[in-house]
Amino acid sequence: MDIKELNERIQRESAFVDILNMEIGKVIIGQKSMVERLLIGLLSNGHVLLEGVPGLAKTLAIKTLSSAINAKFSRIQFTPDLLPADLVGTMIYSQKREEFTVKKGPIFSNFILADEINRAPAKVQSALLEAMQERQITIGEHTYKLDEPFLVLATQNPIEQEGTYPLPEAQVDRFIMKLVIGYPSREDERAIMRQNLQQEYPTVNPVLQPEDILKARNLVKEVYMDEKIEGYILDIIFATRYPEQYKLGKLKQLISFAASPRGSINLALAAKAYSFIKRRGYVIPEDIRAIALDVLRHRIGLTYEAEAENVTTEDIINEILNTVEVP
């Protein structure tokens, strides 16, 4: 494989990333990391879980992204009385035709915002997660393929746990990344305030088509990953399982369960997508370090000892990244 040629080709083909960022930047001020991670999820064919207090432009971000890509967007507000049929659709009897017809639900879109996913009961959560995993929906006797690209952005509100149904660990693991969104900086917030007080709110023009994203996904898979980088990913994952082998024995009593093989797959996929966004045809260790926290924070379980000592999964991942040898 000619790395130089591949690098030049990816530099050419990834030019749309800058155009897309400029278009999204008309509406979204700050939150560069969130927009970047959404693009990584989109290019690596994964889904993203967002945790943040209300009002941090989570809905606006995915809506703006879908407008810039000229894709279909659905926002589903998860509530305790929601049923799986409200999500995927149902069979409706037509008296005129004397037969059942299929009424498709809001899941049949390219971009889905599952707002406050932890407010809906387990049945609804599992219906969404099946759609995410299988990329298809069964209504009655018929199975329907979902449109590509298909990206689910699920949000969780961290401040209020009353009346919520926390996502089981096995379900959370299906998200390629879990992002924790913080408040904007003072200057960003001033710009946000001014923008919202203007006579006209900026509009986003479509600069890409869904087919362009599918083409880019194939290119992302071609990004070169050296054996040493693969070894680095495996070292990070195995350090969560057997910390004592990496001189991290003190973490053994803090971790109740470690990252699964899905963790290493998603870390490799997200690293390739991150390299693509950075207009590079090969993965470097810094790419792994840049996204490791977001890919792994929801894949490590904490013991009672860790919670008693106020140790977070972020602390554990940072400790691993600081200890594991960089190739």
Key terms:
Helicase, Ruva Protein, domain 3; 327 residues; alpha/beta; Rossmann fold; single chain; 15% strand; 2 domains; 11 strands; two-stranded antiparallel sheet
The number of helices is 14
- Distance from N terminus to C terminus (CA atoms, Å) equals 21 Å
Whole-number count of domains: 2
**Biggest sheet architecture:** 5 strands, parallel
CATH architectural designation of the largest domain: 3-Layer(aba) Sandwich
**How many β strands by DSSP?**
11
Percentage of β-strand residues: 5-15%
Quickly give the structural class: alpha/beta
User: Which ranges are low-confidence, i.e. pLDDT below 50, for 5 or more consecutive residues?
Assistant: none
CATH homologous superfamily designation of the largest domain: P-loop containing nucleotide triphosphate hydrolases
User: Helical proportion?
Assistant: 40-55%
Task: Write down the secondary-structure element order.
Answer: HHHEHEHEEEHEEEHEHHHEHHEHH
Which topology of the largest domain does CATH recognise?
A: Rossmann fold
Q: Which outline best applies?
A: globular
Mean pLDDT: 89
**What is the CATH C-level name of the largest domain?**
Alpha Beta
As a whole number of angstroms, the C-alpha radius of gyration is 21 Å
Strand order of the largest sheet: 2-5-8-1-9
